[in-house]
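Incident log, entry 3
Record: Acid stress protein IbaG (81 residues)
Problem: checksum mismatch between cached and fresh output.
Input:
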Amino acid sequence: MTAEQLQALIAAGLPCTHLEVSGDGRHWAAVVVSPAFEGKRAIQRHQMVYATLGQRLHTDEVHALSMKTYTPAEWQATGQR
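Fresh output:
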């Protein structure tokens, strides 16, 4: 799997205003900014991202995914664009 493929999977399952994915083919890192995260705790946000990947986590196609999740307001507060 490529970073572009992983990014497309997340974007297809979750409305994102910003999405970055990097990694080495098995170990991935993502920054996900979504209005769907409003009012959600970190674990709930991560579960929402994991849900976009479906069986790919269970089949080891995506071995590890670390992520930072933000609402648009939280992302803006970081000074990122």
